[in-house]
Design a protein that fits this description.
This protein folds into two domains: 31 residues; 90 residues, Cytochrome Bc1 Complex, Chain D, domain 2, CATH 1.10.760. Helices cover 49% and strands 3% of the residues. The protein contains six helices and two strands. A hairpin with a 4-residue loop joins strand 1 and strand 2. Helix 2 packs across helix 6.
């Protein structure tokens, strides 16, 4: 019984020593300051707001768009299909997608109700965001 008590004490001491070493950093007695996390470059307000509209409407679940960190495979890569297109074309592609179908994609794949789902001000920010990232 006494041997079991001594063994339990030794294990408890070993656990305490390992916890202390883990908390001290490198275990050599020196503590290193943690490197600061890199700060991302600030985005213009329109891009930030437009990206929020993008995320809120799940656009990235279907479309690839590097500017939004999206890699959806159902719809076209927006940077490729919308490059050089005016804002009016981008807006039309969102609110009436069967009218402006990208080459290689069929009509009816994209929901037709984004004009009703996305308030006009948010739609404008979404279009501005997309347009700002696909310019030639």
């Amino acid at each position: 019984m006494r041997a079991a008590t001594v063994a339990a004490g030794v294990l408890a001491c070993a656990a305490a020593a390992m916890a202390a070493a883990a908390l001290s950093g490198d275990g050599g007695g020196e503590q290193r300051a943690a490197a600061p996390a890199p700060t991302p470059a600030p985005q213009p307000a329109a891009a930030r707001d437009g990206k929020a509209v993008w995320v809120a409407n799940g656009c990235g679940s279907c479309h690839t768009f590097a500017a939004a960190g999206a890699s959806g495979q159902l719809g076209p890569d927006l940077a490729a299909t919308l490059a050089g297109m005016p804002a009016s074309y981008i807006r039309e592609s969102i609110v009436a997608p069967s009218e402006t179908v990208a080459a290689g994609y069929g009509a009816g794949m994209m929901p037709e109700d984004y004009a009703a789902r996305i308030p006009p001000a948010e739609l404008r920010r979404l279009v501005e965001f997309i347009r700002s990232e696909v310019r030639d």
